[in-house]
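Shape is hard to put into words, and the shape of a protein is harder than most. The fold becomes a row of whole numbers, each drawn from a learned catalogue of backbone shapes. The outcome of that step, for a single protein, is printed below.
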Amino acid sequence: MQTKLLATAVACALIGALPMAATAQQATASTHAPDDPASAGPPAPNRQDQSDVQTLARDLQALKANYAQEVRRLRELDMQVQALQTRLTGKAGDTAIPAAPLSAESTTAVAAADSGHAGNQADASKAEQAAQSRSLQDALQQEHALFNRKLTIENGISYAWYDRKQLTLNGFLALDAIFLGNIALQDVKSNTFTYTAAARYGVSPRLTLNLEVPYLGRKTSYFQGGAGGAAAQIAEESTTGKGIGDITLSANYKLFSETDSRPDTVLTLGVVAPTGREPYGIKWVAPGGNTGNKADGRFSVPVEQPTGNGLWQTNLGVSAVKTMDPAIVFANLGVIHSFARSFPDIGTDPQTKSPGRVKLGDAYYFGAGVAFAFNDRTSLSLSFSDKVNGKASLQTRGASWTKIIGSDANAGTFNLGVTYALSQHTTLVTMLGIGLTPDAPNFMLTFKVPYIF
């Protein structure tokens, strides 16, 4: 009886537990099924999410590019600061100045920029151009005008050599083949040293004032073959002259600043004061011989050399500069007008005085060239310049104006210039001019040292 009751109780317990176990299993399955990725599977892609991802990727790339640009600019600025500090301490040498070390992130950003960003390459070119601006400005100061320098004091010295030969025939041609008369070979050699003190003051970002005061020393030698009637005899006479030259005061006004389609354009207006020794009224004599007597082989030469032209002049010109990385191209043109002036004596005869007026012909000049920057301190310029002078005229008392035959001239010159920055404030400018026409000096060598305040 007891055994039956025990079996019945166990059976009832098992029957009651089965529904409860099934209910617990279903609850457990419903709880864990949503969190199981294997059982639920991947969710369907959303177009809005894809668009957000692409936008964020583009923003990230833009930030990386900007970061690389800033790293490049910092590196260039650091190199310039190191170069300036080295110059100030007097330890600048020919070796290149290393760039400041960059962090790993900066190096990675720069490498990424070099691999494929055109904007970074443009910024690198701008940084390189900024590093070359000092040397280009030093070259530009000689051909154009600068408005970002408050005061510049310039000392310069130049040497010009002039050598011209002329064959003089005094007679007539007989039988169309035989020349009867005197044949004389004339040769003129001139040495001219000029020291020039100049000052340039920046009044405003568009206006500068310039003052140039030259001091000249000249020696001219005259050679003549056939002097004194002897065909084989060559006579030589020399004269000198020194003193202050004609002072020039000028102003530069910036008409237009440089843009992508327009060059930097500057207008120049100048006045030349006749402070030097004028060439009019200088007497010609035969040194060591009787005046006017050429029997002893002597011939007439001026007693001294002039240092100025003796007339007031005005200069109106325009110059333009266009940057074409890594060079600049410049050009200029203008006109010089001379005002007539009276003198108590304009003749060369020492025995008489001939008062009169002198008027020089207008002169027109033009030129063009290009300048290259090797680095921040050195630049090279190549240019051509030409100056065409009209004929001069003389007017004696009671007579009309008479043009002087042979007084017109055309002086063309090829110029080669090198600038080198000695320090932060001082530059050495070297220029060599080679005459291309008979009226230009054979060559002219110039050294200038501008000091920037």
Summary: The chain has two domains: 49-91+99-116, 133-452. The longest helix spans residues 47-88. The first strand starts at residue 151 and ends at 174. Residues 1-40, 91-132, 171-175, 291-295 have pLDDT under 50 and may be disordered.
